Amino acid sequence: MSASDIVEDDVSIDYNTSYDEQHDEVDDAITRVLIKLYVLADKLLDPRTANLVIDELVRHVDASSNLPSVHFINIVYQCTPVGSPLRALFRDWHIHEADYTWCQTQFEIKWDLPVDFLKDLLVQSGLIHNENPDKTVEEAFRMNVGDRLKGHYHQKIGKNSEK
User: Fold this and answer.
1) Is residue 131 assigned to a domain?
2) Which of 82, 64, 69, 83 has the alpha carbon at shortest distance from 35?
3) Of 14, 51, 77, 132, which is least surrounded by CB within 10 A?
């Protein structure tokens, strides 16, 4: 990802579209900019900025009540390393908050999710199941990522590993 990719104009609104479509376009543009900013901060080894961006991304998605699309999952998995907090955030959103019809829809249109994302989903789902053997699927898997303790998806800062 080049510097020009980071600063390109991400918002263009067609005034012939409905309010909901324009709102979705703006939501997507904000998500895109936040992902790019996170990737830039990560490449510049700036965990403080990366952590601020993660917090803002969680706030933004919670406020919009729309999970980032497959397009954004692909960007995150192309631009971040294995073990990235941003990958963990996207994995958890789709494990805990995605509508169960989401997966079915992916099969019906075109299954173009990154293999690493699918592996992350399977491994984390297995861990959750093993940690909650007496709970129903609904009880074990339902949570709001935004309700997690602040800093859950943060990078470590400094030699004391503060968040």
Assistant:
1) yes
2) 69
3) 14
Asked whether residue 108 is domain-assigned, the answer is yes
8: domain range?
3-147
The pTM of this model reads 0.70
Q: Which residues pair with 157 in a beta bridge?
A: 162
Q: What pLDDT digit, counting tens, does each position of 61-79 carry?
A: 988 878 888 889 999 999 9
- The verdict on residue 60 lying in a domain is yes
In the chain, the number of structural domains is: 1
CA distance 155 to 163: 7
The neighbour count for residue 104, using CB atoms within 10 Å, is 9
- By CB atoms closer than 10 A (0-12, 13-18, 19+), residue 81 is exposed
Rounded CA separation 71/50 (Å): 21
